[in-house]
Amino acid sequence: MRRKHTAPHPATASLWPTLVSLFPYLWVYRRRVVAALACLVGAKLATVAVPLVFKRIIDDLSRPETLALLPILPLLLYGLLRFAASLCTELREILFARVTQESIRRLALEVFRHLHTLSLRFHLERQTGGISRDIERGTHSIGTLINYTLYSILPTLVELGLVLAVLILRYRPVFALITMASLLFYVLFTILVSNWRIQIRHRVNEADSAANARAIDSLINYETVKYFDNEEFEARRYDENLRAWAEAATRSQTSLSLLNLGQQAIIATGITLMMWQAARGVIEGSMTLGDLVLVNAFLMQLYMPLNFLGVVYREIRQSLADIERMFALLRAHREVEDRPGAVTLARAPQEIHFDSVCFAYDARRPILRGVDFRIPAGGTVAVVGPSGAGKSTLARLLFRFYDVTAGAIRCNGRDIREFTQASLRATIGIVPQDTVLFNDTLFYNIQYGRADASRAEVLEAARAAQLDDFIARLPEGCETRVGERGLKLSGGEKQRVAIARTLLKNPALLIFDEATSALDSRTEQAIQSQLEAAALGRTTLIIAHRLSTVMNADEILVMEEGGIVERGRHEDLLAQGGVYARMWALQQQGNGPA
User: For the chain, what are the domain ranges?
Assistant: First the structure.
């Protein structure tokens, strides 16, 4: 059963730890960051200066003796300051655009690479759709967090400081007190209501992720859905998630309206009190008409960005949760890691020794119990047995998708954990039982075995896997696209593509994990000789149900319930009259795998 991938709750995601984690990716572009911050301060200085110049213009025009004259210099300065504010703002965005996008790119690439270093267990326990959604949301949220922080919160704080300084220095303290009290009530109300709304928003995102994962899972298994005529069943299951999402989204929108209404009430109260005080000052003669306009302009400049505080706060908290979710992927434990000082395994014939190997995916259910056998360098050993005996687990352990629970797997006498994973896997080629192809061309899927292979080498590998006639019949030849997971190809065609790309890799150790299971008898016979030719001089492990494919192996191991119960050559095992002989008799009668 897959475990549900839990994420940090938006209410518990913390700003500073997330910013500290994000900071190294931004600081790579420190010059741009510093220049952008300088532009931010410059823009706000110009913005705060605009109402001061406007006050001067109003005062000049309100005097009877200057009414017939235009205040040319203040008007020019007014226009220049407005342009300077816009210029600094755009320069800030131009400077910071590359910082944001490159940080997103670097982090997304690091997460992607890290996911490929995690064990097979990690990927089996999580839904691919959910992981891709985490990366998508996380990368998007980096931009959201940076934009809101740099373009909304920080500018508002700078402007607030400048405005309060002007109010304190030029006017009575009551103006600064009303401004601070209004802002305090506004922020507290916004935070309290937004925290309540975040719980709702979290449920919206959970429902959205569940619906997305459900849809991807269903579409990936398109053929299975069709086999069992379960389109309506899948639609109903998808609709269950959509209904949960719609309900949560409706509550989210309703609560947003309540938040907006409360914010506007606080803003209206603050503006009314400030204008009342300013109007009193004008009547008493302690303030001019320009001062009244100045106070009003300052208030509007402060409150306009605050109108979006609820959205900003919610988006920042949600962005923190999404980014933390992506960082959690980056911190996911590597179950299988290279040891310090791991050495490179030479690409040469290898002797493989499973030395009393024990393994369990779950400690309560052992899979392998003391498996012990050798494959001589250049030799061929076959493993047969019923499903669930642990045969395919041998291949996974050789690739170090998992590490053994007890015992060791040795390569030329050394534990494979002493080698780097990259060099180990470079020496092994596998034709798996279930071949999954990329949604690309036949040529791409074969060349995937060795990305730097020439076209001639790719076509030669295709010929060796008996694919040349099939390719010749296709209108687009090697450039034919195979579809999602190779679904446009038959099982046998996919298997031959897998054989071709493994032959192209030219490994020192070959693993055939039910390599001909999807082939008809005629094609199997044609390919079998090619597989045997490919195995010459290479250490080969064959995992098979069809006993006819392992008759020529140097040694055949018969596995049952995680242990080896018989071993020997084909003729010897038949003579023993044991498990192998009974399996052979059943297959000869046509009752077993043919």
Answer: 15-331, 339-427+507-594, 435-506
